[in-house]
Amino acid sequence: MRLNPLLPALLALLPLAAQEKPQEPGGISDNSFLIEEAYNQERGIVQHIFTWQRFKAEGAWLGTFTQEWPMGSQTHQFSFTAPYLHIPGTPNGVGDVALNYRWQALGGDPKDLSFSPRLSLLLPTGDEKKGRGAGSLGLQLNLPLSVPLSERVVTHWNAGVTHIPKAKNELGEQADLAGFNAGASAIWNLHPEFNLMLEWVHTAQDVVAGPGLKTRVTGTYLNPGIRWAHNFESGLQIVPGIAYTHGVGASRGDNAVFLYISFEHPFGRR
Questions:
Q1: pLDDT score of 22
Q2: Which of 62, 80, 123, 171 is packed most tightly, with the most Cβ within 10 A?
Q3: 145, 136 contact by CB (below 8 A)
Q4: Residue 104 domain-assigned (yes or no)
Q5: C-beta of residue 148 within 8 angstroms of C-beta of residue 113
Q6: Which residue from 63, 75, 125, 57 is spatially nearest to 97, judged by alpha carbons?
Q7: Model pLDDT, residue 11
Q8: DSSP-assigned letter for residue 9
Q9: In this structure, which long-range contacts are made by residues 191-194, counting pairs with CB atoms below 8 Å and at least 24 apart in sequence?
Q10: What average pLDDT is seen over the chain?
Q11: Strand partners, 82
Q12: Which residues contact 146 (CB under 8 A, 6 or more apart)?
């Protein structure tokens, strides 16, 4: 079974997307797709995020559900990301779930320079025999930095590493895996409730090639898209989005449609 190279590249980015915090009533400041912004959830606000990607080359698709909770204040945040995969020729199933902790080390307001490092525990919940998981616990560290350039334009920058010891492939062969990700995005606030987006990501992720052996899969992608907001008097904000992932350079032809929707609302007493 040969997977599209885009699939392991995007699986490596699973915990990154969609760290959201409104910049003004009715507005949106982020809700990114493949790039992680450096804004934790505000106290008393929870977010539920669904994404779906269909890969053009082989018809595989990847869906994710992410939920984000502030831990008493905006300084600390817990979230989890659960993937669900369709790989042609195998049954659909859950991939490796990520448990994420983020620390708002700097800023937190979209008008300010913000930095929010994240540490994730990758659980071996996917079936590695069907290509849906690594078969071992892993760790991921990501360093998102958000830099506003003007009232209408903000940029986001990512760099991270992944380590999965004793990972397994479909044949049960084991090897220690490492990975690296980098990326950047520019968001143009054309209207408080409508944004234009351009994301760039690069990943280099090891995969098991034999007992104690590994090979590296790299990918470079541009992800232009749009997002818009629907706001309700109850405090609920719904943000849909759509993008088209383009492989560039050696990844040319590895393309995917990307759909996104977020539900954010108050809970408890703020």
A1: 44
A2: 62
A3: no
A4: yes
A5: yes
A6: 125
A7: 65
A8: H
A9: 192/24, 192/26, 192/27, 192/28, 192/229, 193/26, 193/27, 193/28, 193/228, 193/229, 193/231, 194/226, 194/227, 194/228, 194/229
A10: 89
A11: 65
A12: 30, 37, 38, 39, 107, 110, 113, 114, 115, 154, 155, 156, 157
Q: How many angstroms separate the Cα of 24 from the Cα of each of 30, 106, 191?
A: 12, 19, 12
Gap between the Cα atoms of 14 and 121, Å rounded = 12
| Domain assignment of residue 1, yes or no | no
Section 9-25 average pLDDT: 57
H-helix or E-strand spanning residue 7: helix 6-11
Decide if 267 contacts 47 (C-beta within 8 A): no
For the domain that residue 114 is a member of, what is the CATH number? 2.40.160.40
Residues in CB range of 18: below 8 A, 6 or more apart: 30, 31, 32, 33, 36, 47, 49, 51, 66, 68, 260, 262
Rounded to whole angstroms, the Cα distance separating 189 from 265 reads 22
What is the chain's length? 270
Residue 79, both tokens: 């979230």
pLDDT value of residue 181: 95
Q: Tokens in use for 136? A: 């071992």
- The amino acid sitting at 44 is G
Tokens encoding 249: 């350079």
Question: How many domains are contained in the chain?
Answer: 1
Mean pLDDT of 75-91: 93
Distance between CA atoms of residues 240 and 261, nearest Å: 4
